[in-house]
Amino acid sequence: MLLGAIADDFTGATDLCSMLVRGGMRTVQLIGVPKAGSPAPDADAVVVALKSRTAPVRQAVDESLAALHWLQAAGARQFFFKYCSTFDSTDEGNIGPVADALVQALGCGFALACPAFPTNNRTVYLGYLFAGGVLLNESGMENHPLTPMKDANLVRVLSRQTDGTVGLVPFATVDQGAGPVRDAMTRLKEQGRRYAIVDAVTNAHLVSIGAAAAHHTLITGGSGIAMGLPANFRAAGLLPEATDPGALPVLDGATAVLAGSCSRATLAQLGFARDHLPVHEMDPLATPDAAALAETALAWAGGKVGEKPVVIAASAPPDKVAALQARLGRDHAGALIEDAVARVAAGLAERGVRKMVVAGGETSGAVAKQLGVTSLRIGDEIDPGVPWTLASGSGPDMMLALKSGNFGGTDFFLKAFRMLRP
Ligand code: ADP
Q1: In CATH, what number is assigned to the domain containing residue 363?
Q2: Domain assignment present for 240
Q3: What is the pTM for the complete model shown?
């Protein structure tokens, strides 16, 4: 294992994994901290996905340290702390406290911090984070329900979360390439700074920063900053020129789509699927009971499960979602449907489904948990940010594509299965 990463949420972890596969690293995502002593997967990079972004600080620190210790024991040479490209955090944490704990545990004294991801319109200039071309605190993130970002100056934001000090490597330096960036970070470390916010406006900047950090023990940032890392391992002769790092064996078995996202993109994908595939829509308003909803869906799927995908959806347009939420309350409605979809996933697996697309971030988490999935080997992307994965855990191996609701083109469901045909 060359790179060992700790991600503060599930879909962010997958995003990082896809970036590393694109860079030629065979990558596995683990869900939660593996048991001490459990064997490391055969991969160049391992990303441990936590759910620590908005967890209590102590818990986020403890879980991150547990992940670090496992990755150290598994032999990782460099460590990466992945957070969101919008630096989602509060003055209490969790980016600062987790980074502090990792710096201390690794004894490295210093780490760069760079959430920039220019492809997704996240850029950092003079320490100020821009999202979608405007300052972070004008991007809508200032109203985030859990991590409202009211200050775009990351030097200040991170300073409030750490007892260490935070410096800046400005655009003018970064634009000169890897050497000057390396020198600037060395100077900041010598001055006693614990962190450097590093500006980045283009992918070329990310590549330079990656090269400058080749010998850093710990790197912190969004998935963008991982862009430059595979080349370091290759230059050191540690990473062979991979012909197909996302190659997965294609499993035999039936196919299905499960949708629990009500995002616009997923609703459009379901609309498209209706013209091509058998679709069953759950009716939680008529039957607000997870077991009964799952039973009806599985009875419908019965004889249809096979080579042609069956589609089972709880997804509904905003008025129906609002009606169910008014009746049950928002949390109960969400939990009921996640439970129903998870039961359907288990039922489909029992009926021989081995290739499944799941739409919805929370929905994917619920399905992975129900299926006992602990690890995902990352395959090639179907659409940007959504790879096929080979899932393993307590049940039989399965191919899963876990899609955040708003990701993917209109024909995503058909495209996903087309990709698996020889
Ligand atoms: P996304 O990635 O689009 O945000 P998620 O799966 O994370 O999708 O979230 C969608 C939430 O909406 C889930 O909690 C799901 O259970 C809930 N949900 C799905 N269908 C309905 C519905 N018909 N009425 C109310 N809530 C629903």
Answers
A1: 3.40.980.20
A2: no
A3: 0.92
* Domain-located, residue 286: yes
Q: For position 127, which CATH number holds?
A: 3.40.50.10840
Q: How many alpha carbons fall within 13 Å on the CB side of residue 388?
A: 25
Question: Above pLDDT 90, what percent of the chain?
Answer: 90
What is the mean pLDDT of the segment spanning 200-214? 98
Do 224 and 336 sit in the same domain of this protein? Answer: no
Domain boundary among 203, 235, 267: 235
Range of the domain at 273: 254-418
Q: Whose CA is nearest to atom 19 of ligand 1?
A: 260
Q: Whose CA is nearest to atom 5 of ligand 1?
A: 360
Pocket of ligand 1 (CB under 6 A): 260-263, 284, 314-316, 320-321, 324-325, 333-334, 337-338, 360-363, 404-405
Q: Which atom of ligand 1 is nearest to the CA of 323?
A: 24
Q: Where are the beta strands (DSSP E) in 128-285?
A: 128-131, 134-135, 166-169, 195-198, 218-221, 254-259, 279-281
Minimal-distance CA residue to ligand 1 atom 18: 334
Nearest to 82 by CA among 132, 125, 38, 45: 45
Mean pLDDT (the chain, rounded) = 95
Residues 6+ apart with CB under 8 A from 365: 10, 51
**Angle formed by the axes of helices 178-190 and 203-212, nearest 10°:** 50
Q: Report the number of distinct structural domains present in the chain.
A: 2
For residues 304 and 219, state if they share a domain. no
Residue 242 lies in a domain: no
Residue 216 pLDDT grade (very low, low, confident, very high; cuts 50, 70, 90): very high
Give tens-digit pLDDT for 16-48.
999 999 999 999 999 999 998 889 999 999 999
Q: Which of 319, 363, 364, 402 to mutate to test the pocket of ligand 1 (most atoms within 8 A of CB)?
A: 363
pLDDT in tens, 293-314: 999 999 999 989 988 999 999 9
Contacts of 234 (CB under 8 A, 6+ apart): 24, 241
Spacing, Cα 103 to ligand 1 middle (Å): 37
Per the domain annotation, does 244 fall within a domain? no
Q: By the 8 A CB rule, do 106 and 152 touch?
A: no
